[in-house]
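Recall that a protein's primary structure is simply its ordered list of amino acids. Everything else, from secondary elements to tertiary packing, is in principle encoded there. The following example makes that idea concrete.
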Amino acid sequence: MKKRHAFRAWFYFRQGWALYFAFIVSAINTMVTTYYLAIEKEPILKQIFPSFSIYLFILSIIGVPTLVAVGYIHFKRIPAFQSEADITTESNPYYYKVPPGYWREVYTPIYLVMTKLLIKSINNEKLTEAEINEITELQKKLDVLIKGGYIGKPPTKSFSSTFDEKDE
């Protein structure tokens, strides 16, 4: 379990570093470097950007929409995102088995019950008391999900289950 916590901490560290810290630091570094090493030393550019704050303002007006467009193109227009999604799908074990939680405890059992009901219906058979109880329990779990509750026991303590133990 401690090994798992270490890997979770490593994952959160990488997310914080890559998405926030490194992004902000690299953006500031790029702006400071380009202004003080390139623009400030070139008289023509210095006339266009007389101060660092004006440079930041103009760069923001032009840069933010440009970067939004580049991000859009990355996701919608070039095959890079599709390739990334393919790799993520291939490496995620839950694409090849039923994930824990509501899929394992509610949705997949419902599909199984529906196929049993279909076969019974085709053969003109009646439901047994055990099958009716199984369907009733699944309906209770679905109702909990519909109301925004949790099904099962999440692996973290940050979630609270609204499905009573006695109802399971």
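The CA atoms of residues 38 and 45 lie 8 Å apart. Residues 2-39 form the longest helix (38 residues).
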